[in-house]
Description:
The complex is a heterodimer of chains A (about 200) and B (about 450).
Chain A: E1 7-10, E2 12-14, H1 22-25, H2 45-48, E3 70-72, H3 85-92, E4 97-100, H4 105-114, E5 117-120, H5 123-135, E6 141-144, E7 149-152, E8 155-158, H6 163-171, H7 177-180, H8 184-193
Parallel strand pairs in A: 2-3, 3-4, 4-5
Antiparallel strand pairs in A: 1-6, 6-7, 7-8
Chain B: H1 5-13, E1 14-17, E2 23-26, E3 29-32, H2 38-46, E4 57-60, H3 77-93, E5 96-98, H4 108-114, E6 123-126, E7 140-143, H5 146-155, E8 157-160, E9 164-171, H6 180-191, E10 199-204, H7 206-209, H8 213-221, E11 230-232, H9 237-243, H10 253-265, E12 275-280, E13 287-289, E14 297-299, H11 310-319, E15 334-337, H12 339-342, H13 345-355, E16 365-368, H14 373-381, H15 384-391, E17 394-395, E18 416-419, E19 435-438, H16 441-450
Parallel strand pairs in B: 3-4, 3-6, 4-5, 6-7, 9-10, 9-12, 10-11, 15-16, 15-18, 16-17, 18-19
Antiparallel strand pairs in B: 1-2, 2-8, 13-14
Helix pairs in contact in B: 2-5, 6-8, 13-15, 13-16
Amino acid sequence: MTGNIKEIKGKALPMVGDDIDTDRIIPARFLRCVTFDGLGEQAFRDERFDEQGNPTNHPMNNEAYSGAKIMISGNNFGCGSSREHAPQAIKRAGYEAVIAESFAEIFYGNSSVLGLVCITLPKNEIAELASYIENNPNTEVVIDIEKAEIKAGDKSYKAGIKPTLQKSLLDGTYDTIYELMKNKDKIEELDKNLPPKCFN
Amino acid sequence: MGKNLFQKVWEKHVVSTLSSGQSQLFIDLHLLHEVTSPQAFAMIRELGLKVAHPERTFATHDHIIPTDNTARPFKDSLAEEMMAAIEKNTADFGIQLFGVKNNRYGVIHIVGPEEGLTQPGMTVACGDSHTATHGAFGAIAFGVGTSQVRDILATQTMSIAPFKVRKIELNGTMGKGVYSKDLILTVIARLGVNGGLGYAYEFAGSAVDNMSMEARMTICNMAIEGGARVGYMNPDNTTFEYLKGKPYAPSGASFEKAVEYWKSMASDKDASYDDIVKFDVNAIKPMVTWGITPEMAIGIDEKIPEPKNDIMKEALEYMKFKAGTPIKDTKIDVAFIGSCTNGRIEDFRIAAEILKGKKVAKGVKALAVPGSVIVKEQAEKEGLHEIFKDAGFEWREPGCSMCLAMNPDKLVGDQISASTSNRNFKGRQGSATGRTMLLSPAMVAAAAVNGAITDVRDMM
């Protein structure tokens, strides 16, 4: 079984922008692999380095945010390809949570199974939090899962978290496989009565 | 009050409500490819589990396979390793692989339907966001991540919450030079790339009723580009005719029984929806994308818009385009016809019709990549490959090819590609500065001939 997650605490990385797709999070060439090992180093590779391999001014290259555990971004984060390599890369790069205005659904589901916590905040609060972190990069941001609350310095926000995710994080049931392995009888009954087997 | 297809399919497939509150959903058909499955098999082995229902599981390889030379071992050792993994994993667990060896491979979303695996009323899952394609048959089909591939392999079920349903009515007749690709680009341009978050899209209306299965699949394929994880259409006689005689479709008395069931799964006339949006298809023109998300699409006679927000500014900068410039006559470097969006037989017929007797413009690299071995063989039987080759297209072996740059087919530098694929994201086609414009196969053929974005209606 997986452990439960009640709180995430650490520095944050503001990475503003909308529609950050999974090709940007992890370019397709890094999907040529049979394990997820080493993906953390390639997270946002083409955003962090130019074609000559020189570092860009991407926030992940900014020393001030090194060791950050919480990523802050914009609307429709994780859109595009269903590759689990995207949340795997973010998690393996050391992040435990992403705070965004909204998430693409497949990314949200993929992250949830891994315990990479996706939290939403309204646009204006994202902007305020991001700007606060830019000015105070050493701030310890605390996400309290039980209270659904984010605290950063003297600021406090109501964290948007789906009740199903909140419960599974607190219970430690976010890795779904253990619970799915129950109900075998019902599964076998459905198997016989659903297409295409039911036509035979 | 009646029910819509989504509600009917969902109810039949719920195994239980999990402690999180999500549903445990039974998956009728699980499709695999080489990119998102190896880690799932590794997890299964690590946990000492078996594949619960190999007979409901089918695999192919499409993303990494080269389209010029498929001789083994591949030059790219990482690609070879992935290919070997899907071959070993399917053999070890007794899963049917449509592969090079039995010569039935292709893009997974083209293989499933042409084998008759995808059927109305089913739940279909695959570790690929374009799984929505199968919704064209009246299936509830969606992309999943690798951990969920693991869950389905081990239990034939997964954890998921139900969707709201938005009915998208496409009424009217498609004009000359207008195709289903133009319809879905119009829908995404209006509703936005995240307009479908939380929704399944039911595509309906007279334009859909009159469409071939191939055209319907193009629309459902891109539902995810509008943020909707599921896109579907109600099954009708066009669906049943398509399925008749396909290798894995029911046959004989079973077929009749199946048709009755399939009809019963269609949305009731008095079904309720969470939202309804209507489009006048008569007014839709050939569409072109100008930016870095699929909603940045305009009619061929329009100008590149003034930026209204940061992402539009970012798009103009990346594409090196100027607001106010007509999109028509934008020079292109590459023309690509293929992918799970537009790599089916009808797409090649339409493009060949435009290309017949014409030549690709000098300096344009043009690729025609059939979506599967079956599509390729059918096209060659009809002589379409000769038309493409005579025009100056490269006629390739099946695969995902330049849609996503996991194989040798890639843009170079900031080349502009006129592409029938589904995503114009930054760097999507293999170069970090490469530029993609999404179009219908007819429009790509026209752009290839003129070396620039063209109104295909002027060539018809």
